[in-house]
Fold this sequence. Notes:
The structure holds 2 protein chains of 2 kinds. By secondary structure, chain A is α/β, with parallel strands linked by helices. Chain A is built from 8 helices and 10 strands. Chain A folds into 2 domains: 52 residues, no CATH class; 205 residues, Rossmann fold (3-Layer(aba) Sandwich), CATH 3.40.50. Chain B has 2 domains: 82 residues, no CATH class; 236 residues, von Willebrand factor, type A domain (Rossmann fold, 3-Layer(aba) Sandwich). Chain B has 11 helices and 12 strands. In chain B, the strands form 3 sheets. A 6-stranded mixed β-sheet of chain B has the order 7-6-5-8-9-10, sandwiched between helices.
Amino acid sequence: xxxxxxxxxxxxxxxxGNQPGAKRGxxxxxxxxxxxxxxxxxxxxxxxxxxxxxxxxxxxQIWVRDFNLNASLKVIxxxxxxxxxxxxxxxxxxxxxxxxxxxxxLSAYRSGDAFGFYAANSEMINKLTLPTRINRSAWLWVxxxxxxxxPSGNNADGLLKVSSLLPKQRCLVFVISDFRWTKDKTxxxxxxxxxxxxxxxxxxxxxxxxxxxxxxxxxxQDMETGRxxxxxxxxxxxxxIAKARIEHIKTLQDTSRIYGYxxxxxxxxxxxxSLTQYFMDRSV
Amino acid sequence: xxxxxxxxxxxxxxxxxxxxxxxxxxxxxFKFPGLEDWxxxxxxxxLRWGLRGLASLTIACLIIASAAPFTEGGTTSRVGxxxxxxxxxxxxxxxSEGIKGRDYNRQSAEAGESSNHFLSKIxxxxxxxxxxxQQRPADTFGMVAFNASSISxxxxxxxxxxxxxxxxxxQSQSTGFTALGRALALALDYFEGRPYxxxxxxxxxxxxxxxxxxxxxxxxKQEFIRQRAQLMWIYxxxxxxxxxxxxxxxxxxxxxxxxxxxxxATKQSASMHEVFQQLGMPYQAFEVESEEGLQTxxxxxxxxxxxPTRYELRLPRKDYGVYFYMLTMLLLTTLIFIKRLxxxxxxx
Lengths: 284, 348
């Protein structure tokens, strides 16, 4: 895993809290961003004496620099564990989830950030809950536990219940799912998570978008409802399917925009660099 | 009349199997994460039900085919041409005697000095019968010769050469006893197993000297009726013989003494003519004294047998299993073709 690049997530807000970390925080402390100049009397730290400010002061007072604390962040991953997450197409969807989560856990630890994990289908899965804290072995825990998960259930309504268990302060929340939900459900979840910085990670498989057969007949079974569909694949239908997937992403993007989020698409295998790239794009 | 029957109707109980394709149509199934936004595709829906129907029909066809459906052929009435004639030729010793009016100059005829004078009964019969055969190409001939025992000389067949050769080879020979009953039985046996398509005629050429015992009479009578055969007796009469119409035991040249007559009378109370009259089938007797007379008799016979025979032909039953098998093959070919269209791996 270490050979994979770490994910450098960037945020445009200042995390609260007094835990030192890598992000520019909002409280006073040791950091690299000047917060204010205060009198030595108020902040008795002669190491931070601002000589220039002290010399210029006609009242000959000693001024000391005050910095913003480089604070740590809380990174939380919410994973959808409904049946469709068990889809095995070109890639194994659950394996991709595992890759993303463990890589995020490792990256969080390396940045000195806390990491938490929750999974839910129609109910929250208690066995797969990792409390939010700085955790060196979180990425291993994720690898160990997600591989034993057997996705089931036909919805991910449990995620709504998870939202109330999250920290009160603002966190970076990743929601990993294929987002095959109705628009209302997505909106409801986003609304519940609205005071966090949410990154919807949308898992897609080429096998359900463009890597589908050109011709032939087959039966498809919906993994969540069990409904079967007889299909006669032909180029016309293929175009329609591709159009439906584009429409799905567009709807998701529209819904996310209302809450100020931007979905991150993972088509096939997950590459950590692309997530870093996503954060850079988002910050602009 | 043409209702459908099944040879093995119990196999039709398997018919519910034909519903199997509606439970599972056997097309390879792939899991798909979600079908909620799958395009509404009417063509696929029709194809799905069409395919199920097709598979169901195939199974149904196969079950029906294996139940072997058929319709009874029924019968048609046909008009038969020609006749089936079995010549029963008496070749007993008495047949070598000269025919009435030409029984003189035997020695000179045998010496080869005169060809015109002497003519034995059997020779006369042979010549006339041969002509009769040649005149009637539509008929089927068979031949039984008999004296002490009956010989199946030529079976009833369309092989005309065989019948003619059989006729030509018939020579008279005395063996002291004449097995008329058995000869008639053998002649009747020729008709056994043949479809009744033409007039059946047993042409008995004999100078009559035989006894048919009471038991045999009953059997013969029964057989004649069963085979629907007519009997015609050409009674070739010699100089010294009596008319069949008034003799007790017809023209029996071997029954001469009073003792013989008495013995015959105990065995057979009536003349052969009377016996034949009681057979229940059409019977005619021709008493022939000369060659000309023989020809007139034959002419009368031709007229009698020229009448077309109306008969019921039982048609073979019509088997539909083969059509169902063919249909099954056709449907299976279609299904195999469709199966080839099946997606094996979900990728382009």
